[in-house]
Amino acid sequence: MNPAFATGPGPETILIVDDQVTNVDILRGLLSNYDLRVALNGQRALRIARQSRKPPDLILLDVMMPDMSGFEVCEQLQADPATRDIPVIFVTAKNSVDDERKGLSLGAVDYITKPISPPLVRARVKVHLDLKRQRDAITEAKQYTEGILESLSDGLVVLSPHGAILTLNRPACDMLGRAEEEMVGRKLMDCFIDWKGTENPFAADRLTRLIHTGRLENTEATLNAGGGQPLEVLVSGSVMRDRTGGVGGIILAIKDISRFKRTQEALRDKEAQLIHAGRLTSLGEMATGIAHEINQPLAIIRMRAQSLQRSLTRGDVPPDKVENTMRILMEQVDRVTTIIDHMRAYSYLERRANPRLTCLGETTRRALGFFREQFRAHQIQFSMDIPERLPLVAIHDNRFEQIVVNFLSNARHAVMERHKTRTGPPMAIAIRLYHDQETDRVCLEVSDNGKGMTPLERERCMEPFFTTKEVGQGTGLGLYIVHGIVTEAQGAIEVLEGPEGGCLFRVAFPPAPPGEPVQETPMDAAFPSDDQTQAVGWERPPAPLLR
């Protein structure tokens, strides 16, 4: 038995009520192994029963007493909530059937006639004390269980095998918007609806599945929360079996997740805003490079337009020159348009960036276009290894592009900081995209030979607002946002010591499910082959694989 329900220490207490001292002594001799109390009249018996710190566990009550009969004492004991549960055994010389019937009708549990039989008295007393002990344990267990149920924040409902409500706790009543007495006997499954108010299949198939399998795990449903208002809940259940293995009852736990859903929705909005802020920050850091990207085609447009203008002034405009000049002008206008569209797409605030199958090679090369002129202007050597064929990955291309942009931006800053403080090999950055056959992951690596990070910095670099940059040069949100994007896409990320003391950032994503097509990486003009950057062949030690 649960210790919480065990009776107190020591023998049970018996109150002997009789106006004859001789009768009292006989009973005291027979029941000496119990804690005995004595009252020689009815009034004294009532005071002991009502006022004792520990009420008697059993009362042996004589019927014929002066001033107040045993029948009257029994009536008052039954009328008082504090004493009505004390079992009463009449021990009396009144031995008629009518007297016995009257005593039992007043609430006594037994009736013993005088002269008494000692073995009978001992046996009857033991039986009724055992029953009292069991009733007390059941009552305490019930109170204990009810206390637990009422303390739960989740709703708990006990159903009959046919789905009728037998009992439910207060949180369940609050969810349903009805009192317990209104719900007992009703079919709980009738309270489940969908958002449109039509019948939800939860009622039929979920209950049937629960009965057949014995358990129901975390099934989302919509509950009619009173007044026709829908309430999103999470339902779990189990079946109680009877002795034959049949369904004796059903227990359902109902958790209100509507607030969680609203909070989750708000967090997704905040996350989208945070990612958007990170993109804008990256764009701000890359403003110089983007200006170079736009200035180059604008310079070509200006130069060609001036040449055409001079030819028009001289009156010498060969048709083939006009045609060639216009073609070049349109190409450069298209290039500027592409850059601007890319900037707009990159900075666009997506509140619902649903995953879609993305070719990481194409997206990576597109992101490189932001840095082409910066690397050239600062004489940063760059190498890339992007195969033409890679499995597709379920991630929004704009978010993956943000990962690449963040890594390249950090690498650029790291190599330039190192270059300020010491001489050494040329500033170099490398990017590698590959399919790791051993782990079946599509991996992106960005490494540099910059100033690097200490082990503690590598451990903390993805915490929000942690930055190794000087005050005003970084928000400390870039890698934190990257970590969130990678995690959301079921990927993994790690930061390692790179070649020549720099850093190596690696992310790994599971490929699309088997059977999805493999897409070629278009070799577009985002990072054309006529760049003046140089490929650098670094001796890189084998990096640990993400598993």
Short description:
With 547 residues, this protein is an alpha/beta fold. It is 44% helix and 20% strand. The chain has 16 helices and 20 strands.
Number of helices: 16
Compute the gyration radius: what is it?
43 Å
SS content category: alpha/beta
Number of strands: 20
Helix percent band: 40-55%
- Measured between the Cα atoms of the first and last residue, the distance is 49 Å
Give the overall shape, derived from the CA principal axes.
rod-shaped
Which sheet architecture does the biggest sheet show?
6 strands, antiparallel
**Strand order, sheet with most strands:** 7-6-11-10-9-8
Query: What are the segments in which pLDDT stays under 50 over at least 5 consecutive residues?
Result: 1-7, 194-199, 517-547
Mean pLDDT: 77
Tell me what portion of residues adopts beta-strand conformation: 15-25%
